[in-house]
Amino acid sequence: MDSRLFVCFCLLVVTRAEDFQRTLVVIYKQTVPSEYLFLRGGDAEGNGIPIWQIVEPEKESSKFRKLSEGDTMLDWHGREEGQPKEAFGTPLMWTTNNQSYHLQTNKDGAGYFNINIAKGHMWIADLDMDCDKTHDGWFQYKGFITQNGKPKYESNTYDGWEQVRGGSVCEGELLPDGENFKSGFEWADPQNHFGKCGSFNFVSWGNGTFCFIHSIEFIESLAPPESSEVEDETEK
Fold this sequence. Notes:
This protein is α+β, with helices and mostly antiparallel strands. Helix content is 14%, strand content 31%. The chain contains four helices and 15 strands. The strands form three sheets. Strands 1, 3, 4, 6, 7, 8, 14 and 15 form an eight-stranded mixed beta sheet that branches. Strands 2, 5, 9, 10 and 13 form a five-stranded antiparallel beta sheet that branches. A two-stranded antiparallel sheet has the order 11-12. It is globular. The chain starts with a helix and ends in a 14-residue tail after the last helix.
């Protein structure tokens, strides 16, 4: 291979890799063991965004690990080719901030997660996302819920889809000018949540006003020191 072509190829690979940034999407929703949350979303035009799941649980029996197989895009279409039939999008991890909980995300794909700084029932997607495929660093998303492997219908969902109500007035250091989150986002669907690539994005299921966006470094600084003691608690 011509040395100049080789150098150009290497530069292209490095540049593309730099477009991927760690991005966390957190949806707070109380659930029961038969329920599971997935993430769907895309850019301003509704196109999918390339992603990779950062957490790869050690246990092969992990439900999250199985559902993550073949998942390479954040899109609106649900299961991708290569994902198991039980997948309805990008799977999230059920997490808690209880360090003594008997499950841990790095082993089980659910349970204690150090960036959960609030409480239990935080469903988290810890992703490498291609920020170059977003709308100036922003993307749209919403949750999708299943029960016993099928889309669930409840008062604030339609065949599994989260219904976002109340507009979107968020807080956080990464919002443009600290103003109403909808200001300057006329391109986006008002019934979706909005996220910032490379950041920590928190919303409450179905609530368009209870949300915030911060840098991941800021959120990590709030996490308490990890304890080495682990108790065998009963999963709630």
